[in-house]
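Action item from last week, closing it out:
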Amino acid sequence: MEPINFVSCEQCQSATCFFKQYGSSIDLHLIDSKKNQSEYLQGDYIIHEGAPIHGLFFLQQGKIKIFSSGLNGTPQIVRLVQAGESLCFRGYGRATYLTSSVTLEDSRVCFFETNDFMQVCDISKLSMHLISYLGDELEIAEKRLKYLMQMNVREKTAEALLFMKKSFGVNRKNELDVYMSRKDIAAIAGTSEELIIRQLSDFEKEKLIERRDHGSKIGLLDEKKLYQLISKYNVFS
């Protein structure tokens, strides 16, 4: 974690920020007075599973993976977080965090201590937005968990690639706009790294994807076919 120059809500470039969406109805100066900011390098932990909860984190800039440990210690990635989203609402109200959070690239994070966040949320419109946000996140998590248990490896791999696209988008070359290791992709899909490597090779032979820049980029060549592979599950509906 690195100290940084403070960036106010008005200066923030994230149009999807939880708070900025209601900038016309809340006092952004109040938000600024309650938040602390830190900068993390790629691969840094922000939250450790099991650590005591002291407040809430919001991603101002960057990309983050959120994962939990299985019974055998194998990580399972449960969320991918982009700028404007919270890292840990599902831990809120508990004594300790249920998941860990690690940066996928250099990132800037806003932090609110619990009591300060409760003062900020003492605004009717913001409270309603919070309820809606929590409901959406819970629905996405439950739906993915339900369907991943029913999918075969081919379907899980397609879902993982499309989940990455939904979370972080693509660049001008239609490449996933994030680098994630094969181990990370396996943790999203809920399968082994060996099976993911094999399935990605099969997808490449079928011209569904193309691995570029020595495997650091994944181009999506036939998204329609990838969606067809998981269409019966309605994962992204």
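Closing note: The chain has two domains: 20-147, 152-233.
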